[in-house]
Give the backbone structure.
Amino acid sequence: MKNVTTPAKLSTGLFLFLTIIFCSNPFSVAEEILNPVSVRTHITPDTFTLGDIATYTITVQHDPDIHPVAPDIEAPKGLEFIEQGESTPRVLNEQTIHEYWFKFRIDDTGELIIPSIPVTFNAPDQKGKNIQGTIQTPKVSLEVQSLLSIPGSPEGIHDIKPLQEYPLPWLDYFWMALAVLAFSGLLYFLWCKWKSRPFSLNLPAPVPALTPEQLAFKELETLKNKDWLQIGRTQEHFFELSEIFRRYLENRYQFPAREWTTEEITAHFKHFPSLSDNLKLQVRSILTHTDRVKFAKAEQTKDEMPSIINFIHDAQPPEAINQP
C-alpha cells in the first residue's frame, strides 16, 4: 500500500504546482499586452567627468493608434543643452517604439538629477474620438566624478576656485579724477592767458587802388620795356596793347569792352555824352588799327601806344587829374 499511495500524492502535488504556474503566466502576459503606452529612460555613458557629453534618451512604446508628441526639456542645473533629435520609429511586438534623445555637456560635479517630465500623446477613446493623455518619465540621476577623485590623477591639479569679489578702489578713482580736473584747469588757464595777451599785427599798409588811368599807364610802361617791336614780335605787341586799351575803357566807362567787338564799342560811344566826337573817332581808329594787325596780320604802319597815351590824357575826367 505504501508503494501505491506515494506516487499518487506526488502526482497530485505536481498537478497543483503546474496549475498555479499556468494560471499566473497568462495574467502577467495579459498585463503587458493591456498596457497601451509605456515610457522608460536611460542615460549614457555609465560614468561621467567634468566636460563629458551625456546622452539622455526617452523611449515611448505604444499601440499603433496612439501618437506621442516629442517632449520638450529644459537643461537641469549642472547640464548645458547641446542638441536634440528623434530616432526612426521601429515596431516591436505589434507596438511602435519612439526614441527621443537629448545631449548635454556636464558643467558640474557631484550628483546631477534630470527630473521626471511629462510626455503627451493622442489616443482614441471608446467612441473613436482623439483625446490627449500624459505619461511621466522616471527621474534619472547621474554621478559626475571630479578629476581629482579619479585614480592616477596628478596631485597638482585642483578644482577651479570660486570667483572672489574685490571692493572697487574708489580712493584711486578719486585721485585720478582729481588729477584730470587739475590738468584740465591748467590747460584752460594757459589758454585764457594766451588769448588775452596783447599783440600787434605787423601787416603791410594797404596799397591804394589804382585809378583806371594809373593802371593803364603802368601796363603801357611794362609793355614798352618788353621792346617787342624791335625784336619782331609785332602781333603779340598789338594783342597786349589792344587788351590794355580795352581794359582802360572797361574800367573808366563801366562796360564790358574786352568782350565787345569794335563795332559794338563804337556804337556804344555814339550816344555817350561825356566824350567829344574827336575822342570817339580816336577810339575807333585805335581799335580798328590794332584789330588789323592782330587778326588780319596787316603791315604795321605806326605804333598806337602814343595815340592811346594821348587819348587817356585827353579823356580823363577832372577828378582823375587831381588824384595823386
Observations:
- DSSP finds eight helices and eleven strands in the chain.
